[in-house]
Amino acid sequence: MKTLKYDVVVVGGGPAGSSVARYAARGGAKVLMLEKRQEVGSPVRCGEGVSKKILQKIELEPLESWIANEVAGAKIISPSGSEFELSEDLAGNETGYIIRRDIFDKHLAKLAAVEGADIMVKTTATSLIKEDGKIKGVLARHLGEEYRIEATVTVAADGFEARLSREAGLKTSLKLRDVDICIQYEMVGVKADPLYTEFYVGQGYAPGGYVWIFPKSERVANVGIGVNLMFSERGATPRRYLEKFIASREDLKGAKIVEINGGAVSVSMPPESVTLPGFAAVGDSARMIDPLTGGGVVNGAVAGRVLGEALGRMVQGKLSPEEALAEYEKGWRKKMEVQLARNYLAKEKLLELTDEEMNDLIEAVGSIKLEGLSTAAILKAVKEAKPSLAEKFSDFL
Q1: What percent of the chain shows pLDDT beyond 70?
Q2: What is the mean pLDDT of residues 16-30?
Q3: Of the candidates 266, 272, 265, which has an alpha carbon nearest to the alpha carbon of residue 337?
Q4: Which end of the chain is more exposed for a tag (fewer CB within 10 A), N or C?
Q5: pLDDT at position 28, please?
Q6: How far apart are CA 35 and CA 145, in angstroms?
């Protein structure tokens, strides 16, 4: 067995893992990032919509290579067909650019490598190394060879399955209502508006979730659905609902499927702690996905930067490992925990709404000028336009 020694080992090459690796390496840490697949970014498991704000938050310049389309905003459509439009500035973390996620992820990994991080693809972390009450690295398999990778801090960025987080002892188990099952088609021959992403909400469209159309060009779009797992026992399979939606749409009739991808998404609150001695989780493995939208690219990358910068200060001697992890816990929670909590409560309430109530909600929000697509702004609109419906959300008001 070969032994490697690093300051930081990151398991997972998605936006969260690459951001940790990039900023830790920039700070002077000796970093190794492991990716179990043969290339970073494939297969795609995402709607591929991100806000432009992410570029500033993780210092990215927009590149034509990974931007498929730039949209002006979003349309939210109710079961009755009523809708309201939001500009890109107000539409949240999933609107702005429709990206080519495989190329985007690989670009982030390259940025980490430019900063000095080492990367091993087609490498599986098989287990954690635990000694003296601390996690001190991982055992891994790369191209048939076994490796012992020792590190001061081990980072789990291994996605929804969160295998390493569970092995470490973090409480990342999920209830049925805290999981959405998603499937997405990339379709050619679509006649949807290329300037707007579209979100269809209501139990008739997608029980406990929503259908989306993300235009990648004038004739190409990602058409997908997320259905809350709580409804699966009632026969609410995502594919059945997605096929029903596509069959009902003139703008999708005749369109051809050129790619199918899917998977599970956590729509839960994060655990009380995402760190242990010598260990940190980030992104979906730390349950940082937005519970209301299911989007996780922005949160994972931003939290990854917070962690990477703290680890950089660790190797510079400014922080002990314990202090660096404590700084990470405090830092990422300051940036997003309140919003995650509010959106989780909103998600819980929306699970209970009938289609009639959803129609009222969309009409209420569309009747006034929103100050932003935030839970607080939506609730303010509901209270002003539909006082009776607002009673369902009294916990927020």
Answers
A1: 90
A2: 98
A3: 272
A4: N
A5: 98
A6: 15
Taking residue 388's Cβ as centre, other Cβ atoms within 10 Å add up to: 9
Residue 227 has pLDDT above 80, yes or no: yes
H-assigned helices in the chain:
15-26, 53-57, 101-114, 163-168, 238-247, 297-315, 321-350, 355-366, 375-385, 387-390
Rounded CA gap, 307 and 19, in Å?
9
Contacts of range 348-351, beta carbons closer than 8 Å, 24 or more positions apart: 348/177, 349/392, 349/393, 349/395, 350/201, 350/208, 350/292, 351/177, 351/208, 351/228, 351/230
Separation CA 86–CA 70 (nearest Å)? 15
pLDDT at 368: 64
Considering the four listed CATH numbers 3.40.1380.10, 3.50.50.60, 2.30.40.10, 3.60.20.30, the one that applies to the domain covering 2-42+102-173+271-347 is 3.50.50.60
From residue 160, alpha-carbon distances to 223, 281, 300, 373 in Å are 21, 11, 12, 26
User: Rounded to an integer, what distance in angstroms lies between the CA atom of residue 95 and that of residue 14?
Assistant: 19
Helical H runs in 287-386? Answer: 297-315, 321-350, 355-366, 375-385
How far does CA 63 lie from the centroid of its chain? 21
Structure confidence at residue 331 (pLDDT): 98
Separation of alpha carbons 268 and 286, rounded Å: 10
In the predicted structure, residue 88 carries a pLDDT above the cut 60: yes
Fold designation for 49-100+176-266: D-Amino Acid Oxidase; Chain A, domain 2 (3.30.9)
Q: Where in the chain are the domains? A: 2-42+102-173+271-347, 49-100+176-266, 349-393
**Within 13 A of 365's CA, how many CA atoms are on the CB side?**
24
Output the CA torsion sign for 174, 176, 178, 183. positive
Q: What angle is formed at CA 199 by the lines to CA 193 and CA 204, rounded to 5 degrees?
A: 120
Compute φ and ψ for 290, nearest 5 degrees: -65, 120
Cβ neighbours for 333, distance < 8 A, ≥ 6 positions apart: none
Give, to the nearest 10 degrees, the angle between helix 297-315 and helix 15-26: 20
Angle, to 10 degrees, between the axis of helix 355-366 and the axis of helix 375-385?
Answer: 100
- The residue with greater pLDDT, 57 or 389, is 57
**3-class secondary structure, 162:** coil
8 Å CB contact between 211 and 200: yes
